[in-house]
Amino acid sequence: METIHLSHPCEIETTTKCSCAMALGFFDGIHIAHQSLINRAARIARAEKLALTVMTFYPHPRQIVGHMLEPMKYLTPLRIKEQIFSRLGVDRLYVVRFDENIAKLSSSDFVQEYLISLRAKHVVAGFDFKYGNRGEGSIETLRNEGAGYFNVHEEEKLSHQYKKISSTHIRHLVSDGLVDLVPEYLGKHYEIKGTKISTGVFIISEPFLLPKSGIYYTKIDSIDQSFYGICRVYKAVRIVITNHHDFAEENDEVTFHWLKRLESMPSV
């Protein structure tokens, strides 16, 4: 998969452009509904013999539009997103830098400069997708402004137990420590990457959203090992494994799969 970073004004060589079916959205977590949307774009790309592309944004628009002082935490930081998109068979990933310039761009200018100019022939977006200055653009304006250039495919709302499957809801579950409920919306257990800095202690260097402070039952994977263990989460982006202290070498990266929050440390 090729990753192309864009900033406003959008400048990309004509020779690198290719006709495509494009999945459009922020895609934090790449949850069940996101996967459905991307798979739909993939089916169109195969049927029409087009490249499969994804357009996402970084940082999150809320960081800029909401004037957030603290950097936002993500279910899937950009590096992890890239890995997942690649596994999903995406040919090209466009990462648009979201800043004040693009936040002020009109919906019609966004369509012209970022969709039509990149030769999108089919655009797949969620029913609630917003774009353009103050979110003036919607799925309906996307159809109108792209008429004659690309077809728009609207992905309808997916729900579980009457709750919309969304990144916002999953973030709330993680923040509240309800990690055992996450797979029903994400499609798998929530995962984050950590780096070992000392015996049993791991630091989270990327902007992952950490679960609520407390004690958790987890599955932990390194390059050549895997085990189930008990971890304690601290607010200062630290995770401490309370068993298997000799797991992994210093500076090794491991993956934590969050299975369940425990009320207290289990007795040995």
Automatic annotation (TrEMBL):
| GO annotation, biological process | FAD biosynthetic process; FMN biosynthetic process; riboflavin biosynthetic process
Reaction catalysed by this enzyme: FMN + ATP + H(+) = FAD + diphosphate
What Pfam families does the entry give? FAD_syn
Nucleotidyltransferase keyword on record: yes
Entry keyword set: ATP-binding, FAD, Flavoprotein, FMN, Kinase, Nucleotide-binding, Nucleotidyltransferase, Transferase
Can you name one GO molecular function term for this protein? riboflavin kinase activity
In terms of superkingdom, the source organism counts as Bacteria
Task: Cite the Gene3D superfamilies for this sequence.
Answer: HUPs
EC number(s) on record? 2.7.7.2
- Domain named FAD synthetase: residues: 16-168
Q: In which pathway does it act?
A: Cofactor biosynthesis; FAD biosynthesis; FAD from FMN: step 1/1
Task: Tell me its family.
Answer: Belongs to the RibF family.
PANTHER family per record: RIBOFLAVIN KINASE, RIBOFLAVIN KINASE/FMN ADENYLYLTRANSFERASE
What's the protein here called? FAD synthase
